[in-house]
Write a structure and sequence with these properties.
The chain is mainly beta and 108 residues long. It has no helices and 12 strands. The strands form 4 sheets. A 6-stranded antiparallel barrel has the order 1-2-5-8-11-12.
Amino acid sequence: MSFLLHQGAQVLCTHGGQATPTVASTRVMLGGQPATSLPNTYMIAGCPFSTPDGPKPCTQVQWTSPATRVRIEGSPALLSTSQGITIGPLGTQGTPMAVMQQSRVRGQ
């Protein structure tokens, strides 16, 4: 079952960095929180990922599979099952995202 994401949903990279949207809907609310959609950029803070060459934290999420039937202000909604990959200083790092969200509004 898929649920729509809102600005307060907990979205984490696999290393534990917290992803939050820089902008969300100004018109659609889910439990008092603005809903998010595909064009909303998610920035990641606090990712501890490192290589022998130094820190290489995840910094942004690139969503790859939003909702197919639900739109928010004309754009595909983001769901709890939406797939996203992380972007960092090395380019696409390819780590998936973990999502914990509201559980009242469902979508496809």
